[in-house]
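Researcher: Here's my situation. A collaborator sent me these components and asked whether they could plausibly form a single complex. I don't have experimental data yet, so a predicted model of the whole assembly would be a useful starting point for our discussion.
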Amino acid sequence: KAGVTQTPRYLIKTRGQQVTLSCSPISGHRSVSWYQQTPGQGLQFLFEYFSETQRNKGNFPGRFSGRQFSNSRSEMNVSTLELGDSALYLCASRAGQGEDTQYFGPGTRLTVL
Amino acid sequence: KNEVEQSPQNLTAQEGEFITINCSYSVGISALHWLQQHPGGGIVSLFMLSSGKKKHGRLIATINIQEKHSSLHITASHPRDSAVYICAVWASGSRLTFGEGTQLTVNP
């Protein structure tokens, strides 16, 4: 099976712009979670989608949003970018809703100038 | 205080040494992950465990639910084991909570 894929891998934006990141889970996986990793804060949970529904959301402002499509692919959007949004954004998929092994994508490295 | 604490934050070892990384958590959990992150960002799940002990090659993970503590051991360490090791727990809901990571460097 192909692993979790994320596009793009690298992105440079300027403050105030918006960005959309994409994640394709492992075939058959219905749960997709998004995480932000920064040197200062480490890994932090953004949100999780299961069967097109957001099941859980972390403590991030409303500028961070996401969605999941019927084929389980997911997108996350960040509007009105700030310098502090520069980070590695990781998505992970798992088969079910409960505690299960998560499979991580390679990440999208976002730089906001 | 973080819900998940790891120690040490940094660890340097010589090739062949036995390595232990510790993880303590303060919340009730249903399972715990040990993750490995190499430079460049990719994260691999090494283990997920909710009790006892698991072994995969030179890696061993243990968990003591009563003491809220887990350890990751690497036997006969090798330079290719150099990476950041992250402990993450499934607490309430469906989110993972992460420790800050342990940077391991194994010198030849």
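Model: Some features of this prediction you could bring to your collaborator: Chain B has a mean pLDDT of 92. The longest strand of chain B covers residues 83-90.
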